């Protein structure tokens, strides 16, 4: 199954969350998401990911939005499903078999997530029911989703870009395209 995955980064605070939000986007890109919706007017995140895309390839996008609620509703009206990553949700192994859609929005919160998100989500999913990094949770979820659909997200190749890493046991090898 070819899963379509978009990340909704919710509650990004420009001064506080820039590094973590960038890491959420980089993780999403590396592990197969098509893009990220950002509910903030932080052009820096968009610029950083455009630079990564130009240098390393791929087609990942960051799009700034004004209403997370309308984005979720539009997604669902188009037939998509919504997964909210939260430590209060069902543990991932208990939910993964049910999450087999071709159109999935994954909500990754930064600050306290509004209670309405818990109701709008089709699944509230936890990677363990303990506090930890949203970047780690997203990486595990994307890897498990890809594995359940027969895709190996750890060996993805990106087209375009200026450079490519050549895997090697020792040292570093980077090829200019």
UniProtKB/TrEMBL annotation:
Pfam families: Trm56
Name listed for the protein in its UniProt record: tRNA (cytidine(56)-2'-O)-methyltransferase
Residues spanning the membrane: none
Source organism (scientific name): Candidatus Methanoperedens nitratireducens
Enzyme Commission no: 2.1.1.206
A GO cellular-component term linked to this record: cytoplasm
GO molecular function: tRNA (cytidine(56)-2'-O)-methyltransferase activity
Quaternary organization: Homodimer.
């Amino acid at each position: 199954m070819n899963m379509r995955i978009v990340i909704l980064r919710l509650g990004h605070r420009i001064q506080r969350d820039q590094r973590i939000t960038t890491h959420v986007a980089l993780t999403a890109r590396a592990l197969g998401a098509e893009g990220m919706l950002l509910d903030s007017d932080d052009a820096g995140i968009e610029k950083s990911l455009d630079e990564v895309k130009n240098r390393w390839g791929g087609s990942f996008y960051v799009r700034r939005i004004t209403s997370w609620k309308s984005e979720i509703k539009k997604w669902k009206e188009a037939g998509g499903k919504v997964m909210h990553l939260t430590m209060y949700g069902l543990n991932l192994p208990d939910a993964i078999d049910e999450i087999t859609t071709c159109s999935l929005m994954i909500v990754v919160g930064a600050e306290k997530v509004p209670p309405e998100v818990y109701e709008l989500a089709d699944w509230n999913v936890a990677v363990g029911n303990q506090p930890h990094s949203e970047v780690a949770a997203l990486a595990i979820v994307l890897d498990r989703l890809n594995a359940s659909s027969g895709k190996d997200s750890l060996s993805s190749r990106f087209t375009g870009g200026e450079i490519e890493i050549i895997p090697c046991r020792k040292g570093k090898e980077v090829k200019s395209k």
